[in-house]
Amino acid sequence: xxxxxxxxxxxxxAYESFYNNTPLVTxxxxxxxxxxxxxxxxxxxxxxxxxxxxxxIGKFQLYRIVISPFTCNQLLSLIFAxxxxxxxxxxxxxxIGSTNxxxxxxxxxxxxxxxxxxxxxxxxxxxxxxxxxxxxxYGVWMLILAVIAAECAPADPSxxxxxxxxxxxxxxxxxVLLVFFALFSGGSIPIFYVVSIGVGYLYGFGKxxxxxxxxxxxxxxxxxxxxxxxxxxxxxxxxxxxxxxxVDVESAPQPVSNNGNGTNASGQSGWxxxxxxxxxxxxSNTASRxxxxxxxxxxxxLGSSSSSSTRSRPSASSxxxxxxxxxxxxxxxxxxxxxxxxxxxxxxxxx
Length: 351
Description:
Blueprint lengths: L9 H12 L2 H16 L6 H4 L3 H4 L6 H5 L7 H22 L1 H30 L13 H12 L7 E4 L2 E4 L3 H12 L6 H14 L10 H9 L60 H5 L16 H8 L3 H4 L1 H30 L1
Antiparallel strand pairs: 1-2
Helix pairs in contact: 2-6, 6-7, 7-8, 7-10, 8-10
């Protein structure tokens, strides 16, 4: 009786697929918000992570400015974050590289939180209401809205993007999304949501280029402080040409391969996506190139005209077959004559 293998675990298979097919920074961000959601079953982590002006400035807990975007305490928010962030983050990270994408998310989170603190502080000074100092800003949606606004800002004015059953102008898509959130939240919109879209628009229109990491600086960081980060599974190399342009991901022509000279599929100079770098493989580009199954020139199929014409043409090696055979026959004849002469001499001696 043959034993059957145990049934495959669907949860393990889903995790392995997510791990193998998701770039490093996108995977780390989603893993972080998933972990904080699971922790929220027992304790709300936003109390210790959220950017609350009264605690961030009053008690000098500046770490909240950096880590507050990477949290989630609601299942619905986690599901929509997966549908929105993982897909969009996968495309953007493959276009601009893991280092650039990680620096972009950190910069967005810090700028949004600082502006949120300034607005709440100004409202406290004007109204003298201490509740403004307790307004939190946290959650991955501050990053998602900023990224969406940044990629929609430079889009063509005539381009459209589908929003459920209707199409809206791409440039106004983040505003429509904000109105949608307002309808589901009873008309109230958190301040940091508005700030997030504003920061994304500013970046998309080129007003925040100072947070962009230049090519040489990025290479120095990857060779230094980020050396171990570059060996992690899912790391995507940055643009080979140095700088990169943030464009609308939905309408941008997707490069088909990394050709090593910073040229994409449309022939424009800039970034090119690369395959994931394995943690134990230093040359990912060499490992990613498929090796031909047969020798000779690539791109010929069996039975094609190119392959048949190749067979019909005699090669240089086939021209040397006949002289080699003639030499072998001549040598065999000499050996036969020598053997027969020796045999006749032996017979004559016996007589």
